[in-house]
């Protein structure tokens, strides 16, 4: 079903920004098999979008460039519908009504690409339904639902620059974090996150190390980010040769820093100005029209 997502058609709209791991350090392994991570995370203006309106019965529809991939998937695994059902259970348990709702997802972000698309959609679903159902639930209850949906969902619920530790549940906001011009690129090749973790050479890498005095401007943050790393990038490159090519292509356009996000295969490049990022994305698209490239800006801390 093709739907143009516009404010006039829905009671509420929510954006689901892409989650970018500027750094991802794997620092340990829990006894239950979960990896311990230190992450420097930011979010982009480029996003999926969700619309919500009251309905006689629950309804869900899709549009956007990457919607066909979700339409083919098992509906039971859709994080938007899981978020709806879990929040409804919590609402009923707390004595609130949670009537039927029509949710539309405009899927603009690549699927399973290391930028938290599904997690961002789930988090936006929680925010949108809290509004349309007028729920006054404790924040820890909502965060508990988010964590049940996935380790990235609590971060996406915040959608502001942060440092996350543990499996992603321990969050420290960075209110003074700057906005960056950015190019996102993806070769549209799937990478198995469990396989990436299995191929990690070490599970106990050094933690995220920032100076005791946080960087306080754009240039200082760039230099700090360059000294950090993504421990998942080397094993991901062994699974997907395109990641190395993609990173080199982004760097060739004058990016001041480039790295893979999450478990891949999306890579990002940081640029000094948005116009440079737009020119780079256009150039990259001409070089590889079969790949995904997007110029965007990240959301400033405290925005």
From TrEMBL:
It holds the Pfam family GHMP_kinases_C. The keyword Kinase applies. It is an enzyme of class 2 (transferase). Its EC number is 2.7.1.148. It comes from the Bacteria. Residues 217-285 form the GHMP kinase C-terminal domain. It catalyses: 4-CDP-2-C-methyl-D-erythritol + ATP = 4-CDP-2-C-methyl-D-erythritol 2-phosphate + ADP + H(+). Keywords: ATP-binding, Isoprene biosynthesis, Kinase, Nucleotide-binding, Transferase. Pathway: Isoprenoid biosynthesis; isopentenyl diphosphate biosynthesis via DXP pathway; isopentenyl diphosphate from 1-deoxy-D-xylulose 5-phosphate: step 3/6. Catalyzes the phosphorylation of the position 2 hydroxy group of 4-diphosphocytidyl-2C-methyl-D-erythritol. Belongs to the GHMP kinase family. IspE subfamily. NCBIfam families: ispE, PRK14608.1. This is 4-diphosphocytidyl-2-C-methyl-D-erythritol kinase. It comes from Rhizobium mayense.
